[in-house]
Amino acid sequence: MTPPPFDDRDGLIWLDGALVPWRDARVHVLTHALHYASAVFEGERVYKGQVFKLTEHSERLAQSGRILGFELPWTVAEIDAATRATVAANGIEDGYVRPIAWRGAEQMGVAPTGTKIHLAIATWVWPSYFPPELRSKGLRLTLSPWKRPHPETAPTQAKAAGLYMIGTLSKQAAEAAGYSDSILLDWSGALAEASGANLFLVMDGVLHTPVPDCFLDGITRRTVMALARARGFKVVERKIQPEELAAAQEAFLTGTAAEITPVAEIGAYRFAPGPVTAALIADYDALVGRT
């Protein structure tokens, strides 16, 4: 059965300090964020009723706002509390959380002077970003024609809504061509990330991952790197050229939504889900309480 659209669901959304009925959580069409992408957001996972790395996500949300030039009118502790209240009010045991902060409709124009900052937190049941069977056989990815921008041309260290236009275009084209997603290069032509997840490669037992100098250093990315080092795997952050994919035996994506998902194909290159990926999936599942 097709799930209902996101504007027509039962439940409660935390909006500017209060839980309101889901369908009443609305903004005006002349909201600054809709026209000028002045919004930042987070993606968070709920496991057994608890939000994984909640404070880290709330801190990043606040920092993303600062990068875009605004302060949230709530502290990190208040955002944490509001998130927990929203999860509890909706009875979410395993699901997803989406906090978003944006500039309001007080001013219409590029300059955001005088706009009010809003914050909403929604949560819903969402068991898997990719179909579960792909955790065993791996994703088919292509290379995107779009590149991640130079850090001097965009606020690349913010989880900002406007930066996801490139990811949307990349994933839409990949799915139309029969792939699950695509890998974007960075502005210099090196490997960067997928449309909404970080990339890892296993080369002779060593974990390699692109330096996040023009894309988001994911919270799940850092978690997986810590798990890998705890197991004794060497982790190398560096610029990786596309042709180096030929030297990788395993590949996987990481992210709040993707968690750890093996990759079987990137363009002309093939990989097999192997022991390093399997070990890290097991460790991640144990960490979040899935096993």
Automatic annotation (TrEMBL):
UniProt GO BP: isoleucine biosynthetic process; L-leucine biosynthetic process; L-valine biosynthetic process
Annotated TM spans: none
Q: Tell me the pathway.
A: Amino-acid biosynthesis; L-leucine biosynthesis; L-leucine from 3-methyl-2-oxobutanoate: step 4/4; Amino-acid biosynthesis; L-isoleucine biosynthesis; L-isoleucine from 2-oxobutanoate: step 4/4; Amino-acid biosynthesis; L-valine biosynthesis; L-valine from pyruvate: step 4/4
EC code: 2.6.1.42
* Cofactors (names): pyridoxal 5'-phosphate
- Alphabetical list of InterPro entries matching this protein: Aminotrans_IV, Aminotrans_IV_CS, Aminotransferase-like, B_amino_transI, BCAT-like_C, BCAT-like_N, Class-IV_PLP-Dep_Aminotrnsfr
Which Gene Ontology MF annotations are present?
L-isoleucine-2-oxoglutarate transaminase activity; L-leucine-2-oxoglutarate transaminase activity; L-valine-2-oxoglutarate transaminase activity
Annotated organism of origin: mine drainage metagenome
SUPFAM superfamilies per UniProt: D-aminoacid aminotransferase-like PLP-dependent enzymes
Gene (UniProt): ilvE_3
The record's Pfam families line, in alphabetical order, gives:
Aminotran_4
Tell me which PANTHER family the record gives: AMINO-ACID AMINOTRANSFERASE (PTHR42743), AMINODEOXYCHORISMATE LYASE (PTHR42743:SF11)
Q: What is this protein called?
A: branched-chain-amino-acid transaminase
Q: Give UniProt keywords alphabetically.
A: Amino-acid biosynthesis, Aminotransferase, Branched-chain amino acid biosynthesis, Pyridoxal phosphate, Transferase
Q: What does this protein do?
A: Acts on leucine, isoleucine and valine.
Family according to the record: Belongs to the class-IV pyridoxal-phosphate-dependent aminotransferase family.
The protein's annotated catalytic reaction(s) are: L-isoleucine + 2-oxoglutarate = (S)-3-methyl-2-oxopentanoate + L-glutamate; L-leucine + 2-oxoglutarate = 4-methyl-2-oxopentanoate + L-glutamate; L-valine + 2-oxoglutarate = 3-methyl-2-oxobutanoate + L-glutamate
